Batch of 2 targets.
Target 1
Amino acid sequence: MKATDILYIEDNEDYIQFVKRAVSKINTDLSFNVLMDGKNTLEFIEGVGAAKPLPRLILLDINLPDYNGLDLLAKIRSNKATRYIPVVMFSSSENQKDMMKAFDGGANAYLVKPMGLTPLTETLQSICNFWLNHNQLPVDNFAA
Amino acid sequence: MSYPVVNLTNCDKEPIHILGKVQAHGLLIAADRISFEIAYISENCKDFTGLDAAPLLGHTLSYFFDTLYKDNPDQTYAQVIRFGLTQGLDNLNPIKLQLKGKLFHLILHTSDRFIVLEFEPTSPDVDSQLQQLVGSSLTQILEGSTLQETLQRAARQIKELIRYDRVMIYKFWEDGHGEVVAEEQAEGFEPFMGLHYPASDIPRQARELYKINLTRIIADVDSEPSGIITTPDDKDKPLDLTHSTIRAVSAIHIQYLKNMGVQASFSVSLIANDELWGLIACHNYTPRFIDYKARQHAKLIGQVLSSSIQYREGQEDREESQAFRNASDDIIRRMQKDWSLVDAVINQKNFLLRITNATSAALIFEGKIYRVGDAPSEEQIQGIVEWLQSGNKRNLYHTNHLTALYSPADAFRDKGSGLLACAISKELGEYILFFKPEIITTVKWAGNPEKPLATDDSGALVLSPRRSFEVWSQQVEGTSEKWSKAELNAVFKFREDLVHFINLKANEIRKLNEKLKEAYDELDTFSFTISHDLKTPIASIKNYAEIMLEDNAQLDEQNKHFLNRIIISADKMNTLIREVLEYSRVSRTMLQKQRIEMEPVIREITSELVAAYKVHNLDLTINGTPGILGDRVMLTQVFTNLLSNAIKYSSRSKPPKVTIEGKEEETQVIYSIRDNGVGIDMNYGGHIFELFKRMDNVKEYEGSGVGLAIVKRIMEKHNARIWYESEPGTGTIFYLSFEKD
């Protein structure tokens, strides 16, 4: 199974479309997967292992139908398998408190919706450049 | 006042009750109550008894009666008197007896340590006449259905009883002057009904006597009064004649009666609530004595009439009070119904004037003057209000003599000599004023004021109605009818209700304000939320339009153009939403005041704007940049918006010129931002600061009409001021003024 480069957790179909478009513009080779609710995301985090390769970057919405993205962030950061995956929050909340919570909870970046296609592409491009190309993630020894 | 003897204040001082004289028709003897020794006797004793007065002094009453009736030793009057002194003299009066074969009444009373004997004539047929009259006359009087009718009937009954030429019922006003309120006169005599007489016509101490002696007879003004003689022991101590029925009359009063052509006068006091309400004043134009018993009957009629007056006046006062109250209640009800004070008070003209007997009134409320009836002019009313506000005047202030307290009132004394002021709010100068005219304009005076004055041969005292009028008119100059208790009570109650109503209304307004504030806050939150939520779908519209454009290279030019228009419109909408958000954010954000160095702020803003508008030929001058105390973010926005406008609207001038000037004054910092752009028509005034307001001459420039609204809001939040000067085609200067601390 091909590894997921970018995992987008989002329930809004529009943004799934836009991010998908932006990612394809950055590099057509990047694999892109979407999870549309918190329940599936939790299952995914629990199940991550040798059989299910890690995504290299997670894009996380805050307002999900069943979960708060910040809680999901906490799960990601507390799971040995996923704790080093860069997480970019992507939310319509401009609330300073939400932003602070996100960074305190281990988010690596925070993008505010809405975003035009061009700035979205440009921003994601630079994020991918940094996290996917120039940075080697620490890897835990899963076998051990 | 150049007449020698007439001095009515003198008259007030004359000690009427110890004149030491009796009228010619009666004989007076006063003896010690214990020893019965005669101490005083009137000189006319011989006329009645054939005995000289002087030799009787020092003798006892027994001696007097024994001498008088020496042929008839059965007459024991001295014993009867002694008996009366222990058993009550009233039961004895009058004692019928004969002097020199003529029928007399002996009337007894005490004065200090003396028993006073007064002999006056009577006739045998008096009794039977009276029996017929009195019973029916009282019934008739009491049958009157109104006070006026009762008075009229009483006048008629008295006239029948005493058969004088004229019987008047005379009522004293509060200021002491009198008015003829009912009258019966013999045929051929001019009516005096409705005429007024000055208070000085009946001096104060005379009025006190009227309360003690309920009847008073002056049988013949031309008769020579008889002096009262006494022993040398008592000569410095005149007999107190307070209760005397034959007491002689003051020379002034005699003259007064003579001047009116009156030969005999009889009066009955009318007393209500322990005050002299008035008199039944009877005049005869020939001498006429009234028998003691007839006088007593007249007195009885007077007493019955008095209690009837007291009852009926009380009733009429109550009715008047009730009428005032009803009028007042009507106004208050109207107010509560329509929530409008002015409409209730003014549009129902009659109602305001029905609260009192005022002839005109005015309402001063919320900066306006409303007049009802023939009131003083607005200017005069304004003057009164200012005068009322000065000094410690009560909320309910009244006078019937305004000119004496406030001299400008002289100009409108015909309208407002009497003032009853009811303060709604003294601080705001809000009042209801009631006016009464000068009384002189409303009164018929006794006698013809135009008639020349009469003088007698000696040039001495001539009291006449003409003369009285002068005195009186001077006394009442600038004076109105008094404000009655009923009127004051009515206005007092009215004021209470009024103030209560105003408080209610104020509360209502306060509640409304709170609701308004809530609604305003809600609207603010609403606009913030809605703007925020609009951003997402608009971004989506734009993004999809972009995707469609990218994915469909084969589209024809027109469809490509349409998609571009969608993108541009979405951008415009986005800008608008962003600005509205900024606008609502101003009121949602707390000010964080600090001293701000303006130079770097202004430099940064201008360089960004120059880049954004691509006006590279901009002639920019910065002249002084004093610091400002304020919120950095917000003030940056103010300067950004104003400078953005200045640069934008002058971008087509050649070259665009923008000058920023800052000046520090004593208490404020003033900035001006001047451009040579399109300018603003000054007729727009403050409207340019309204949300979404754009001027007609800037249609071709980009803009949402929010920028200046934000500026204004921020300035208001800083308690700072903004204003502008402009001329279309020449340019605009915006001024900003900040408090220094």
Target 2
Amino acid sequence: MVDFGIPIGAGIAFGLGALGTGIAQSRIGAAGAGTIAEKPEMFGLMIILVAIPETLVILGFVVASMIMIMLV
Amino acid sequence: MEYAYVNARIKAMKSRLLDRSFLEQLINKPDIDSLIAELEKTTYREELDKAGVLYTGIHRIEVAIRKDLVKTFRTVLNLIRGGETESYLTIILNRWDVQNIKTILRGKKIQENPSEILECLIPAGELDEAALTELVKQPDVKAVIDLLATWGIIYSRPLTLNFKEFSETGDLLVLEYALDTFYYQDAISRLKSGESDDARILKNILVTEIDINNIKTVLRSIRDRIDIEEAKRYFVKGSPDFDIERLTSMMKAGTIDGALKQLEHTPYQFITTIPQEYIVAEKISAFEKELERYLVKKAVSLFIGDPLSIAIPIAYIWAKYTEVTNIRVIARCKIIEVPEKELREALISV
């Protein structure tokens, strides 16, 4: 019988990471747009700040991958 | 309300406000022309250039900083158009409506030239430049009130109600206090309907302002030996700590010193540390200045409050207003050659 628990666990690990990243990036993106509107020279810094929450989804992806690899 | 965008933008605007070291440079300038040259290095450059076509010297600075202030406030208001937040911010900007109406009434009472009155106005509230221009064209105080009533401006209500007393006594203070009282009561009642954090922050600042005005009224009334019952008319309901009973008790002390003693163990106890000579000479202006500084500091300190609330726009409006006030003080002191020590004392540092 196929064990669905492992892929579901991997999905949750990746999905929640992506959700967290989305929420964080929406806030940071809005604030970044506001800052760039007034100070265009901050563009480079804002790109970095918007990218930082990507680590959440990357970690989620790594955890999901590890779960899947363990399954195999 | 999406505060992330708006407040980040306002914080970026805040970074362009003049810092203490720049104000020091302005103080050290020998004359108005070098002051203008220094200001041209800042965000005031655009308005200074425009004003330079029609005005010179201090008038150029006055016009430029006033226009810049109005433009900045309009920018902030446009950023938060719509919803509850806009109405909250309008409450703050309505202060300038009240101030403008009072200035026009004063000007009309002494029959000042309309263009002179117009120069003293700051069209940052709901009454724009066109409306104010029309108001200053009116021949007298009654005509100004009538025009406000025709336009359906709410501030015509307290003025109409108290006009009879004004026409009998000729005391403009009656209308000014009625206007102030109406503004604060209207603002607090508009905030009562909202129980959000934004409403709480704004109410806190408004109540502090009311308390400070009440304390000033108490001190002035004691100095001018005004009857307690007469003074009571001018109190506005503020915080529970400074209710009418407490203010009356301060009045009953009969002396400035006695009234100040009752401020101990309150947030305003700092004014009890003002040198004794001011108390003896009953120099109320020293107390008023300290109280105003406290209010400005409290409002500007909202910058370190909740970054996703109305605290940031409120703090910015106060910080910008303080900056403009400081530039005006420096410019005027340069014109009449006030000693540097007195100039520094007149500035509001935040």
